[in-house]
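Input structure tokens:
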């Protein structure tokens, strides 16, 4: 019987040649085995595919307490991304299962994408492009834009991504406000931004609001009808965080009623699948959760996740990027 720990990659589309190459480089090719599996994003399908595996790498599947109850051999579960909101972390800790992610792997990419969305929605670039492709040549096919210099951008939370945006925002002449409960006034000021006391103040004083918070119980629908009304009819919303940080139904209604002027998003509450009503509106720019992507970030995430799996299963040490720090094994 083969006792080498097995790592199952569930619904991860890439072949595992890169991962196998890394294992060879690390001298770990004979200490863990890799296996791909595919199926519906359902608990039953995942449990069947991961049965007997010591490690799992997933994307959208919900790793719940029920799932963990049914996978007694599982010792580590990883996501090739930053957000771990699809994991029941308390249940994983109770089961002695390490949960890991790939923090920081796409800071440069998401920061650049968010800046691109700000420029696009502010200047009407995508809207004008659509107009030209429909046979028009009309510089007034999009609403008259405001000059960016002197306008105010409000950043909701201030981790690595919004911090990396700061040079670009300042180069455009934008004033920057930050709502960041865990950051000090002094730290925020050192970057060239100003920290505000609460979210309401940021919403009422910003021309553009850009979201950079994780999806937690307390941030789910952080932006709803009330918050959109605080922003005002000329305001723009940018979301490269998580879809459910925004009440998407409220956003669709607000855009149709002119409560705010526009929205540019890389995420949606309707993921995976992405059949969002926002796509029916002219005053939106939508990308398919692609802000994280570059050749470099893609490989970095895969390497970080595999390294944490090897550390736990082959080396027997606490893995890198451990999310549930209190886990005992």
């Amino acid at each position: 019987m083969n006792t080498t720990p097995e790592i199952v990659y569930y619904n991860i589309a890439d072949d595992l040649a890169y991962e196998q190459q890394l294992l060879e480089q690390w001298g770990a090719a004979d200490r863990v085995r890799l296996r791909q599996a595919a199926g519906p994003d359902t608990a039953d399908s995942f449990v069947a595919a991961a049965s007997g595996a010591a490690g799992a790498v997933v994307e959208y599947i919900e790793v719940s307490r029920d799932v963990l109850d049914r996978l007694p051999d599982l010792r580590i579960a990883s996501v090739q991304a930053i957000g771990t909101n699809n994991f029941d972390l308390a249940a994983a800790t109770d089961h002695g299962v390490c949960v890991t992610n790939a923090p920081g792997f796409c800071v440069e990419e998401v920061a650049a994408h968010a800046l691109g969305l700000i420029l696009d929605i502010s200047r009407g670039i995508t809207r004008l492009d659509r107009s030209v492709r429909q046979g028009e040549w009309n510089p007034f096919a999009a609403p008259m834009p405001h000059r960016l210099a002197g306008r105010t951008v409000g950043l909701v939370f201030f981790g690595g991504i919004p911090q990396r945006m700061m040079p670009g925002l300042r180069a455009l002449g934008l004033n920057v406000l930050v709502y960041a409960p865990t950051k000090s006034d002094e730290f925020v000021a050192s970057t060239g931004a100003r920290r505000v006391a609460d979210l309401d103040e940021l919403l009422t004083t910003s021309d553009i609001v850009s979201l950079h918070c994780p999806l937690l119980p307390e941030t789910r629908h952080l932006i709803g009808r009330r918050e959109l009304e605080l922003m005002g009819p000329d305001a723009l919303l940018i979301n490269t965080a998580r879809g459910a940080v925004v009440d998407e139904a409220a956003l669709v209604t607000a855009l149709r009623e002119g409560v705010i002027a526009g929205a540019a998003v890389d995420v949606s509450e309707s993921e995976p699948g992405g059949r969002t009503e926002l796509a029916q509106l002219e005053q939106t720019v939508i990308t398919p959760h692609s802000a994280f992507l570059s050749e470099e970030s893609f490989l970095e995430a895969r390497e970080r996740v595999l390294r944490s799996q090897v550390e736990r299963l082959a080396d027997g040490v606490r893995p890198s990027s451990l999310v549930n720090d209190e886990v005992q094994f």
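The chain has a mean pLDDT of 96. The first strand starts at residue 6 and ends at 10.
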